[in-house]
Structure formats: C-alpha cells, structure tokens
Amino acid sequence: PIVSVLWALKESPGVRGLTLIRQIEDSDNFIAELAAINKAIRAIPITANVHIYTDSSASIQAIHKALAGYKGGAPALLTQAGRPYITSIYEAIKRRSEWGAYTRISHVYS
What we know:
Helix content is about 45%, strand content about 30%. It is of the alpha+beta class. Helix 1 runs parallel beside helix 4 (about 85-100). About 25% of the residues are buried.
C-alpha cells in the first residue's frame, strides 16, 4: 500500500504552523491524496485561512477543474475518479469562501 501524508499550514490570528493532518494507506495514491486534502480542509475552522501543500498535481488539477465548473456538465463529473472527495472539497472551499476564509492548495515536489 501507498501511504499519503498531508501537512497543512494553519493561518489564522495567533495560529501559524505546520501540522500533520492525515496519513492514509491506499493502493490508489490519487484517491488517498484527495481524501487527505478533504480531511485537512474540514479539520480547520471555517473562518480560518488555510494553505494546503501536496505533491499531487493530479489532485490539484481535479479540484481546480471542479471549482472552475465542468465544461461538460454533470456527466463529466460522473466519470471523474474520486468524485465523492472532489465534490466534498468543492463544497468545503465554497462554504469557507462564503465565510470570508481563503483556501489555497499548492504543489510541492516530493
């Protein structure tokens, strides 16, 4: 099994630091990365800004595609691997934005 580890940088008044969010064992690294990103976004208070770093460019692209809106509509999302996590991440980012918090996801090389 592949182990994905996600670290998140918490940014809010009085809180700043690198925190281990989640370790996931999975045979599909893409799904494990999405699960970890989802967990990280939901572990941080909705009003706190968060910057998530991941080495999964595929996860970042899938999330950005969801945020930009699928050009093919709902059927395009239905064929996307990891759609439950992508949908959950999309909803969490939108809700956080409504509360005035930003969510950034950046690529790092492993």
